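Format notes (please read before filing issues)

Several people have asked whether sequences and structure tokens are stored in separate files. They are not. Every record keeps both together, in the order shown below: the sequence lines, then the token lines. Line labels are part of the format and must not be stripped during preprocessing.
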Amino acid sequence: MRKGKNLMTHEHPLKAFTALALACFIVTAADAEVLDAGPGGFTISHKTEISASRTEVYNAAVDNVGDWWSDDHTLSGDASNMTIDARTQGCFCEALGEGAGVVHLTVTFVNPGVILRLSGGLGPLGLMGVSGNMTWEFADSENGTIVTLNYAVGGYLPDGLDSIAEGVDAVLVEQMTSLKAFVEDDGRYRIVVPDEPHYRENGGS
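Then the structure lines:
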């Protein structure tokens, strides 16, 4: 089980989360997929191929978000508190204990196994004067599934939203990489790919 620092023990958890997340946001992404960026907003797109069926990848992304999302990009320090209710007006939420919680994003469109669209400011963006539209698309490919993540953000930040665009991209690339690893390394989701002689049904390689 992954272990993460529980930021809720901090005297000012929201301030601690914001400071930590903003620090992560200003890290330059090695493989930036920032399509455009300006003071008033930015657009990010990232694509990855996962060796599993479209339905399996979609189900893992939605039903198991607490297993593959990074502990470092949560308010509680524990990604197992993250859930996605994949229906219109459903919540991408995080439980904080003792009845507390936070809405990270809200589902605005869902076509199971094909598209999941959410609105809002992810992480510290939710505490800024911004709005965002995040879309996950799942498409069949020769080797499994292509997952495309698009995130468009607009609003106001004193230093300009372009100053954090690459950092936000780095965070999302990390989550996409983690989803791919979770699906391909977890025996529940692996599928047999032709001409892969070393494949084992129990998820080994």
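For reference, the curators noted about this record: DSSP finds four helices and eight strands in the chain. The longest helix spans residues 165-185.
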